[in-house]
Design goal:
- This protein has 5 helices and 4 strands.
- It is α/β, with parallel strands linked by helices and 165 residues long.
- The protein has one domain.
Length: 165
């Protein structure tokens, strides 16, 4: 089972992380939901979260519910395809995802958590979920697999999957 939510705190944390990691390359996008005249610094976290328009918050929470509902309808089939591809009997997932308005999506496979871009089309989001779930399953099979190999394998799987649909 995958649970999906929109948390302004998680979204803001991702924006703060991007600003720190991307440095001079960091940029706001049109999707940045917090008030732009409040400096993006950790000390302003509470003020930034309070600046989130309630309609925007409701929109992203509704988006999270739609994505979760759509995934739930497809989950059994998608997990069966991944299991068949990886040659494993069944897959039990208890993952969590958070929506982000930022342009990069962090993940923590150890805790089976990842982010999904909130402002992308639904099918893009579904593919993103499949991509991340595939990685979770890969690492269950081989926790020492190198990142480069994981990425090659997921790309092969997504190509295989696109031919199965």
């Amino acid at each position: 089972m995958l649970t999906i939510q929109y948390s302004p705190q998680d979204d803001l944390k991702n924006w703060l992380r991007l600003q720190r990691v991307d440095g001079a390359c960091f940029q706001f996008t049109q999707d940045y939901p917090f008030q732009r005249d409040i400096p993006l610094i950790i000390e302003n976290q509470d003020q930034l979260i309070k600046s989130l328009n309630l309609e925007v918050l409701a929109h992203y929470q509704s988006t999270a519910k739609l994505i979760e509902k759509t995934w739930t309808e497809r989950e059994v089939g998608e997990l069966s395809k991944i299991a068949a591809y990886l040659n494993i009997p069944t897959i039990q997932i208890n993952a969590k995802a958070s929506l982000t308005t930022a342009y990069k999506m962090p993940y923590d496979y150890k805790f089976e958590w990842f982010m999904i871009q909130a402002c992308k089309p639904l099918e893009w989001q579904m593919n993103n979920i499949v991509h991340e779930i595939f990685h979770i399953c890969q690492l269950r099979q081989d926790p020492d697999m190198l990142q480069s190999r994981r990425e090659r394998e997921v790309e092969r799987y997504l190509e295989y999957r696109s031919k199965q649909v």
